Structure formats: structure tokens, C-alpha cells
Amino acid sequence: MNTVHSGSLNDHHLDPERSLALRRAAKASFIGNFIEWFDYASYGYLATVIGLAFFPEADKTVRLMSAYAVFAMSFILRPIGAIVWGAWGDRWGRRWALSWSILIMSGSTFFIGLLPTYSAIGIAGAIGLLLLRMIQGFSASGEYAGAGTFLAEYAPPSRRGIYTSLVPASTACGLLAGSLMVTGMFTVLSDSAVNTWGWRVPFLLAGPLGLIGRYIRVHLEDSPAYQEMRAELPQAAKSTKATTSIFQRMSHHRRGIVISLAAILVHAIAFYAIIAYLPGYMQRGVDLDKWTAIVVVACGIFAYICTISFTVRVTDQRGQRQRLIVALLIFILPESIQELLSNHRRETAITFGVSCLNAVAFYMLLSYMPTYVHEELGFSQDTATLATSIMLVVYIGSIFVMGHLSDSFGRRQMLITACIAFLVLTIPLFLIMTRVAGMFIAVVLCQIVFAIALTANDGTLATFLAESFPTNVRYSGFALSFNGANAILGGTTPFIVTWLIKVTGSPLAPAVYLTVIALFAMVAIFMSRTIHGSELTESNTGS
Questions:
Q1: Which of 72, 58, 23 is nearest to 495 (CA)?
Q2: Distance, C-alpha 164 to centroid of its chain
Q3: Looking at residue 42, what is its pLDDT?
Q4: C-beta separation of 426 from 515 below 8 A
Q5: What is residue 521's predicted lDDT score, i.e. its pLDDT?
Q6: 307 pLDDT higher than 60
Q7: What is the reported pLDDT for 275?
Q8: Sign of the alpha-carbon dihedral angle for 49, 55, 57, 63
Q9: How far apart are CA 454 and CA 216, in angstroms?
Q10: What pTM does this model have?
Q11: What is the pLDDT of residues 132-166, one digit of tens each?
């Protein structure tokens, strides 16, 4: 559906108050994502230094993988954070959720800058780093989704794409600022200074930036779409904290909970015994070599995947529709998440699949790439970060163009184009970078092409996610799909590609991984409905 509402572009120019509100929303959305991704850039580009500070006794590769493992584990709480912030944002307002998420996120980042290293407190330093990264991941899960939802609901339909593209642009600005700072640090400071105290500076900057962001956000009005939704709710629904408390619901379903917990217990023991313990057992007890054991387990997992859908079908045919694990989870979740998983499962699954390309490509190209250029292509650390900085400048410059094109041609078409670009170009571009090692210009040009392909996806994605859900579950749906993809694939990307290179011995391993993910995302996009330029106060079920 392509309706035009009272907030068209011309209307905004005629209504100074509405135009001012939109600019304030843009500033508030920008700063939170800027802080979040400034932190991710700093951590990613300083991974070798952080590995040395907190894991000094390991060899070089293991130190790097340990640092990336902490980076990946910080994403574990992102789906949980997505549920919490999404539910709060849908119930109490986008402004409320965003003002608290930025405070917690910037605070945890700030304390990383004060954290004692291994030389001072031993392994406790690494544990502290992990805990702070997990808190940061929990709070950051509300940022991108909240900012995207906030801007999409403020912007007029005809210009929603270009306004919402400010969200990925702010992430790129944060990455660019982080890369420039790290480049400057490696240029100006000695290696000893960077290793001892210099690495702390980017994290300490998050403190004052977070306070500024908090101040901006608490002085905002909530989005017009959210206010309209709240105005239409019955007074009783607005005055109560929840229709029924979790404990009240639990008291009425004690038998179901006990049965569900028992089923989960059996599943957990069997699943992890087979997946986690069996490879080691086959090496020690059956005398299989490591790779044979892994292949055997992989075949088992493949069989699991092939048979599970058949099993579910059989239970449906026999009337056993009580999916105990899912039922329990849905039962204890906030109401907006219950609504999402009950009535919008298809949209959630599709948006998750579409978000996978952003998760992998973004972290691989904009966070991991300096390490790749340094470790695999042999460039110095400052040269590697400079190359990524140039890529980020192109990314920021083209992201708004892609947002505008999504307004003109549609979200689906732009996302499909991005997938095709990655499918066709990824392996050739990585081949060029590996074959012309030492040629800085060639590496930069390859990264520029990647940046343009990535903006075709990122400049469209936030708008696509916002338009895929109705107002009452929009924050939750956006947050859960986006953060779910980032938790599973995004945060793990630097660790996975480092491991793949180590195992295969091929610098092309990241390219193959990214190509597979692009194919997966394209399948998800083809399953999506065309939702473009619709009113965000409507149910957005398709057009």
C-alpha cells in the first residue's frame, strides 16, 4: 500500500513544530547508535591489544580469538535485551526505553576503560571484561531497533527510507570515529603506550557522550504513531501495569509448567550430551581422530534438522499441538512478545532472515576488516584502520542515497539487489585483495565496492523492519529479529572467520561464509510481502 498521510514532506515544511520534532528525533536517534558503534569499533580495532592486556599468556592467535570470543559472548544477552527493551518500548514508549538504554550502555562501556588488566588482578580482569561487555550488549539491543522504530514513526511515508537511513549512518559514523581514533593512537603513541593506557581512552569517552544523549532523549516527545496508539487504548488498559501478572498466570497453569520443565530438562540433557560431549567421547573412548569425530556429529546434526520438521508434522496430525518448550516460553514472556510470537511469527522469521546479511556483512567488513588486512594481508595496523576509515566515509556518503532509492523503488527490490551484489562480488573481491597484497589502493577500492553493496542493504533494512510490524509490537518485532540475527551471527562473525582461516588455512574463508549468508538472506526476502510507504498507524500486514 502506498498511502500518503498528513506528514508528507511538504506538510513538514508547512508545520515548523512537526519539522522541529523530526529533527530532534533524528539527533536523539543518532547519538545512541554513534556511542554503541564507537565502542564496537574501538573494541574490534583494538582486539589485538585487548587480547594482550587480558590474555597475555596465550599465543598470538589464541589471544585474538579470546578477545573475539568475549566480543561474541557479549551478544548472548542481546535477544533477552531485545525482549525486555522491545516490551518496555511498546508499553511505556520509545522515548522512555531509549533514554534508559543509552545510560546503561554508555555506563558499562565507560567502566571497561577503568577495568584492571591481567597483570593487576589476573583472570578476574577477563571475567570483568566479559560481564561489562554482556551488560553493554543487553542495553545496546534496544538502541538500533528503538532508533529505527522512533524515526520510522516520525518520518512521512514518502521520505521514511531516507530519514530512517540515518540509523545505519550513525552506526557508520561511530565506526568511523573509532577507526580514526585508533589510527591516530597507533600513529601518535608508541606501542607501549597503546598497550598500557591508550586503549582505555575510547571507552572512557562513552561516559560524557552517554550523559549528553540521555539529556537529549528525556526532553523528547514520543512518536506520533505511538501516541495515537496509546490514545486509542481503553483507559483501563493504560492505567494498569499489566492485565495479569506472571505469577497469577503461573498459578493457573502449574501442571503445564511442571510438564514443560520436565520436557525441557530431558531435551537439555540429551541435546548437550550429544552435541557438546559426544565429539570428545568419540576421540577418547572410540579412538576416532578429531576431524572424523566432528564429521560424525555434523552428520547427526544434519539428520536432526531433516527429521525435526517431520516429527512436528506427525504430532500435529495426531493432535499433540502442545509444543511444551515454546508454550512455556511464550507463557512467561511480556504481552507484546506474546502477541508477536502468536500472531506475527511469519513476519518475525522473515525479518530475522533478512537481518542475517546485515549481521554478518556489517561486522565482517566494518569491524573485523582492519584485523584481516593487518593479519592476513600484511599491512600495518594504522594502514589497515585507515583503509577501513575510507570505506566508512563512502558508506556514510552512500547510505542516504540508498535510503532515498528505497523510497522510490521499494524495500524489497533494494534488499534483493544487495544480496545479488554480495553473491556475485564477495569472492572475487576477496581474491583481488589476497592477490594484490601490498597494493593499498587496490585493497581500498575493493572495500569501497563492499561499502556500496552494504549500504544497499543497510540503508533499507531499518525501514523494512519497522514497516513489517504494527505499532503495538513494532519495537519488539524490530528488536527481536534484528538482535536475534546479530546475537547468533553478527557478534560471532569475527571469531568465526578467524577460526575458519585457522582451520582451513585459506584467507578466502570469510568470503565463502559471507556468500552463504547472502544466499540465506535472499531466500528470506523472496518470502516477504511488499510493504512500502504505508501508514505506520495501520496494521501493516501487506500490500
A1: 72
A2: 16
A3: 80
A4: yes
A5: 94
A6: no
A7: 47
A8: negative
A9: 30
A10: 0.63
A11: 888 888 887 777 777 788 778 877 777 777 778 88
DSSP 212-245: HHHHHHHTSPPPHHHHHHHHHS-HHHHHSS-SS-
The pLDDT, as a whole number, for residue 154 is 76
Residues 159 and 539: their CA atoms lie apart, in Å, by: 20
Query: Could you give the CA distance from residue 301 to residue 274 in angstroms, rounded to a whole number?
Result: 9
Q: Which residues have CB under 8 Å from 104's CB, separation 6+?
A: 135, 138, 139
Closest C-alpha among 25, 205, 174 to residue 107: 205
Question: How far is Cα 509 from Cα 368, in angstroms, rounded to an integer?
Answer: 13
- Distance between CA atoms of 366 and 32, rounded to whole angstroms? 18
Query: Is there a contact between 213 and 31 (Cβ–Cβ < 8 Å)?
Result: yes
CB atoms within 10 A of CB 193: 12
All domains of the chain in start order, with CATH: 9-244+334-526 (1.20.1250.20), 246-332 (no CATH)
Environment class of 539 (CB within 10 Å of its CB; exposed 0-12, middle 13-18, buried 19+): exposed
Percent of the chain with pLDDT over 70: 74
Taken as a whole, the chain contains a residue count of: 543
- In whole angstroms, give the CA distance from residue 168 to residue 144: 8
Predicted local confidence at residue 108, as pLDDT: 86
